Amino acid sequence: MTAADFQGKTALALKATDVTMREAFVETVSAAMDTDPRIAVVTADISAGNFGAARARHPSRVINVGIREQAMIGVAGGLALTGLRPVAHSYTPFLIERPFEQIKLDLGHQDAGAVLVSIGGSYDDPVWGRTHQAPGDVALIDTLPGWTIHVPGHQDEVRELLTAALATDDCVYLRLSTRRNARAYPTGAGFTTVRSGSRGVVVAVGPTLDAVLAATSTVDVTVLYAATVRPFDHAGLRAAVGANPNVVLVEPYLQGTSAHEVATALADTPHRLLALGVRRDSEVRAYGTAEQHDVVHGLDPAGLAESIARFMR
Questions:
Q1: Are residues 93 and 215 in the same domain?
Q2: What is the pLDDT of residues 70-105, one digit of tens each?
Q3: Please, which pLDDT band fits residue 313 given cuts at 50, 70 and 90?
Q4: Cystine design at 48: which of 43, 92, 113, 246 (Cβ 3.0–4.6 Å)?
Q5: CATH number at residue 20
């Protein structure tokens, strides 16, 4: 291999690493549209330009409804009822909170499947203020039966989860973030055991994993990773708990969102639970950075380490 060849391959590798979750989403859906005539994309201005190339190839299957999020979900439901596989996309609050009635009725009540793909996470872009933040999104979708909920922690996981979702007719929510772990993990059914220990179990959801690993580097605990939170891996948690049922749940959205799932999994086992996530007791009105919001909510490595150590003591 020549020096030029090596530099070229290195540049390609760096480019692949630098792909964001949103870019992985756009690339995966655009490519899938070329081979699957069922797939249609519905946007409400957000990211509409990213699907320009796909629109040029498939003008009838890339629909931008403008800033009309309720209509976006209604259109997606109508497309599903005609046999298409719609993908609706926007910022988290505009995709989940604003059109929730349409999600409940036009999709769920009609048994119309769709893939909802959000960006922005809980507070990825705090510069836009509270209008672009939705830490309660997973808890809200969790009130509806039958939804699969994916919270990937790496762009490569986005590709795998999305490809699988597009091949079904299910209701799927894929929660993207600008936060990501250093590497991808398996996205199959159930938890992935990242580290084994004897003093308890820490469940790290999506992009929280690297912070959890840093926070527990000197603590003798099992760390489970979840890129899919619904359905929740009850059997996997039961198997990991063993004789020391101390459970810490770390989620990048509303604190305690999956606490009831832990309770269900361990219904016949006395256990202790510490649920960590976006705080419920106060609303952060400052802007700042996403990392600063992590500190406020105790989701940075130092905050997690302090909470977990206190709980384990």
A1: no
A2: 999 999 999 999 999 999 999 999 999 999 999 999
A3: confident
A4: 43
A5: 3.40.50.970
The answer to whether the CB of 277 falls within 8 A of the CB of 257 is yes
3-state helix vs strand vs coil in the chain, percent to 5: 45, 20, 35
pLDDT tens track for 121-178: 999 999 999 999 999 999 999 999 999 999 999 999 999 999 999 999 999 999 999 9
Q: State residue 139 phi and psi, 5-degree precision.
A: -60, -35
Give, rounded to a whole angstrom, the gap between the first and last alpha carbons of the chain: 56
Whether the predicted pLDDT of 268 surpasses 70 = yes
Nearest alpha carbon to residue 284 among 140, 125, 123? 123
145 and 247 together in one domain: no
Range of the domain at 227: 192-312
CB 216 within 8 A of CB 305: yes
CA distances from 152 to 27, 227, 237, 284 (A): 16, 5, 19, 25
On whether the CB atoms of residues 207 and 188 are closer than 8 A, the answer is no
Domain ends where: 175, 205, 233? 175
Total number of domains in the chain: 2
Q: Which residue has the tokens 């926007």?
A: 90
Residue 139 shares a structural domain with residue 254: no
